[in-house]
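Structural prep section.
Before we set up the soaks we want a predicted structure of the protein with flavin-adenine dinucleotide in place, mainly to decide which crystallisation condition to try first. Input record follows.
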Amino acid sequence: MIDRERLMDQKSPAILWLRQDLRLADNIALEAVSHHLFFAVYIWDDEDPWSPGGASRWWLHKSLLSLHRSFQERGVQLILRKGKPLQVLKHLVQETKACAVYWNRCYEPYVIKRDQEIKSSLKQEGIFCQSFKGSLLTEPWEMQTTTKGAYQVFTPFWNKLKEISFARPLSVPDLQGFKPSVFSESLEEWHFNPTLWGRGLEEIWTPGEQGAWDNLSGFLNDGIQSYASRRDIPSGQYTSRLSPHLHWGEISPTQIWHEALLSCGKDSLPFLRQLGWREFSCHLLFHFPHMPFQNLRVSFSDFPWQDNPDHLKIWQTGQTGYPLVDAGMRELWHTGWMHNRVRMIVASFLVKHLLIPWQQGKEWFWDTLVDADLANNAASWQWVAGSGADAAPYFRIFNPVLQSEKFDPHGLYIKQWVPELQALNSPHIHSPWKASAQILEKAGVTLGKTYPFPLVDHAFARQRALDAFAR
Ligand SMILES: Cc1cc2nc3c(=O)[nH]c(=O)nc-3n(C[C@H](O)[C@H](O)[C@H](O)COP(=O)(O)OP(=O)(O)OC[C@H]3O[C@@H](n4cnc5c(N)ncnc54)[C@H](O)[C@@H]3O)c2cc1C
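Run finished without errors. Recording the tokens verbatim:
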């Protein structure tokens, strides 16, 4: 039973439980808690099977610092705790006599189950609990096919989504901070800020709500108009780079949706469509919770994958001998991000040229991407592998050389990330093993020494993949 008297008693504080919603504006749980005196808590859940990987932890560290500062300016305290969320929340309720807990929903299968248990347990103790939609345009269960089922094909999903008119984003409410006399762990003690690797990430990213808005306005001023024609070019910044900000909820999809439409109306649809893919991935994860580890298409269950730790390592470290693949894997390691087109190419190379299970690529991405997201990562890997919903057919095998010639024609992206090929020009930079000894010598490239020979021959690998698929 909810103790309504306690809820209305202005002296009892409420708790805002922050998760993937690290922002002040358009935060519906914050709006709800702002009617109380309140404090915020971020809980690091030790038992989460999909605990963020290394690059995401770095992001989280910086984003919490930024949010802490924003709260501090408004007199709100942010408490950090590690442990089981139910226990942590129960302790905080006891320590502060809090009457209510508010949060925005997340959709990872483990989190859905955990949060349901937390809600019912706290409610039994008379604590008011309310959760909200804070990180999606539509709830995964709201979108239904005409037969009331889950969507498995993107186009009809998108056709429906794009017709919805979404409520205007909320502004930052007036906040009434409460100073609980409880301890907070220190962010430094969580050791999420690697000094060496973090340096590369720091050069590129500004985690936090302000950083998200800077990226969005930069993109709206100079990018969205040419998005459709340039989004596949990896050299240069032709996409929004909002993915990590979106994952951690430093900006909401509703804010982006409205700002993009305001800025260039229907011309923004090719960009907004990508937000549609984000919604679709989450829809799939909700309805098919095994998606992060099991093929969605059962026909893939007996696929003859090859476990090859040496090849996996060569791929991870960007030493495959295919310049575009290597450039992508090195960009990932250095910046925690990789261009979408290149993600598709490197993923296809791992799964189809090397026959390594997509789950192993997905794990590497999980640890190294600043935007690692269970739904987007799993759905995209299954899309590339051909085992997912509405996936690329398995027999469509990217040729990494043709892709390189098409999307990086002057080799600018390759030169940035594979400096040992700097002095090679097109067409040789796309396939150095085809260049004459004279050209290689002039460019200072010794295959097998300064840059590797191709790990596998494309024609051989393509045929092997097709045979495996046929079997
Ligand atoms: C193998 C593979 C793994 C991926 N793993 C992730 C991941 O872990 N996290 C992640 O956010 N994206 C993932 N993506 C999707 C996509 O590559 C990134 O979202 C995109 O590159 C982010 O850059 P951006 O913000 O500039 O995107 P923009 O092109 O500016 O798009 C705007 C937003 O739309 C969303 N979006 C764009 N493309 C996709 C897509 N294909 N699927 C779902 N959402 C999309 C992102 O939130 C993105 O920020 C993956 C793609 C592949 C092929």
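Observations: The mean pLDDT is 94.
Flagged for discussion at group meeting.
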